[in-house]
Specification:
single chain, 4 helices, 29 strands, 429 residues, globular, mainly beta, 5-stranded antiparallel β-sheet
């Protein structure tokens, strides 16, 4: 707890139940026998509990061949009431329970038999960002702390830390978003690894409890992994520099969409990131469109010649864009918000309501094409699964939840199968 007081923590935790990382999940029956050849990918379904604040999480395998309703009778409960994001690596499912400050590793066999293998406490980072994995022995996770935790994803043991305090601006006065603004925290929202370099996305906040942004631009901390001893504490010599680009706001999903990543590495080894105006909630304050920025292959600086205005390419300036579900050849799916659909009586409408439409964007031509006219909860559910030219993406409106099938060549969309609760889809490769 090296950057926030207990007072700030107590203000912050109730808010994260409604803001980023909001997951909606469902229920099932643990007494059912596992089904043989249950499916290709991991599916986490989610539905809000009667308390209106927590969710119940259930895990099962799902198949791209399924066309029927998939309930949770064969699912395994991950948690009955919490807030979390999910990631997969090397065939395992990592359940980051940010409400309780822990991460669990789950295995799920081909016959749908799931079990919790190991877990570790992450209370010291207060609220986890998305984890990133180097190999079977080394992974990283940060949060509302100036320490990035190094852990072994096989054993789920914490092995070391990277202290990035020298590259943060905690305590600095920025006069943003208003005169007198001072950075209270710079959260590690997520990270991406390219070669021997770790790129750390920071989210500067002047007020943690309200997610008030602290800088207008996008800060990234660059870390040399060749200088990191995974078994050591600190590793301060590995922190190379901080880079910044004011053309876009901060990046990093911070648990959004069920465990989405807002930074991606393409086939040319270029890093692209979506600068999303704090989940669109602070679009007016930033007064700049959601955009894509780039760190080219072989560089540790932003590409000054690359800038992709996502809003102008889609519904027009003032229509925020969320998510970066990359499916290859410079193309990705994202959810575009219709500002006229926002509920003015709900301060989190921009995040939790079905007011988004799925679009496909092209990083090279900087163009966009609508995929579905239907409105979905695109900010709170976005983790997608891609296979053989088909995209399977989550959809939920006020009446139903289902997996949408998209032909990635023609962008023709159809309903693949319905679910009990909002679906999140994860590759087990």
């Amino acid at each position: 707890m090296n950057i926030l007081s207990k007072t700030i923590i107590s203000k912050f935790l109730p808010v994260v139940l409604f803001a980023p990382a909001l997951l909606l999940i469902s229920c099932g029956d643990d007494g059912e026998e596992p089904t043989a050849n249950a499916g290709d990918f991991a599916l986490v379904t989610a539905i809000i509990n009667p308390d209106g604040q927590t969710r119940a999480f259930y895990l099962q395998r799902a198949s791209t061949e399924n066309q029927d309703h998939l309930d949770n009778s064969q699912a395994t409960e991950l948690s009955g009431a919490t807030g979390a994001m999910i990631h997969t690596y090397d065939g395992s499912v990592f359940f980051s329970d940010y409400n309780n400050g822990r991460m669990e590793k789950w295995s799920i066999g081909e016959s749908n038999n799931a079990e919790m293998v190991r877990s570790m406490s992450l209370t010291e980072v207060l609220y986890q960002g998305n984890a990133t994995f180097l190999d079977e022995n080394t992974a990283f996770v940060g949060g509302l702390s100036t320490d990035i935790i190094i852990f072994n994803p096989t054993t789920m043991q914490k092995t070391g830390t990277i202290d990035i305090s020298s590259a943060t601006m905690v305590g600095a006065s920025t006069d943003f978003p208003a005169p007198g603004g001072t950075i209270a925290a710079e959260s590690v929202a997520e990270m991406i690894i390219r070669g021997n370099t770790l790129f750390v996305a920071l989210m500067p906040l002047t007020d943690v409890s309200t997610f008030t942004p602290g800088l207008s631009g996008c800060p990234i901390v660059v870390i040399d992994l060749d200088q990191v001893d995974a078994s050591a504490q600190g590793n301060t010599s590995a922190v190379v520099k901080r880079i910044y680009d004011d053309r876009g706001s901060s990046t990093g999903a911070w648990g959004s969409g069920g465990g989405s990543y807002f930074m991606t590495l393409d086939e040319n080894n270029d890093i692209y990131m979506i600068c999303h105006n704090m989940w669109t909630g602070w679009r007016t304050v930033f007064d700049k469109p959601a955009c894509i920025l780039k760190i080219p292959s072989g560089s540790t600086e932003f590409d000054a010649n690359y800038y992709f205005d996502l809003e102008s390419a889609a519904k027009g300036n003032g229509s925020p864009v969320m998510n970066l579900e990359y499916y290859g050849d410079g193309k990705f799916l994202a959810a575009v918000l219709d500002p006229s659909a926002i509920n003015p009586d709900d301060p989190y409408s921009y995040y939790i309501d079905p007011i988004y439409q799925w679009w496909s964007f092209d990083l090279n031509s900087q163009t966009a094409q609508i995929v579905s006219e239907s409105y979905t909860r695109g900010a709170s559910a976005s983790v997608s699964y891609f296979e053989d030219g088909i995209g399977y993406i989550p959809f939920e409106d006020e009446s139903e939840s289902y997996v949408m099938k998209i032909d990635l060549e023609t962008l023709a969309a159809s309903k693949q199968f319905s679910t009990d609760g909002i679906p999140h889809l994860f590759s087990l490769d």
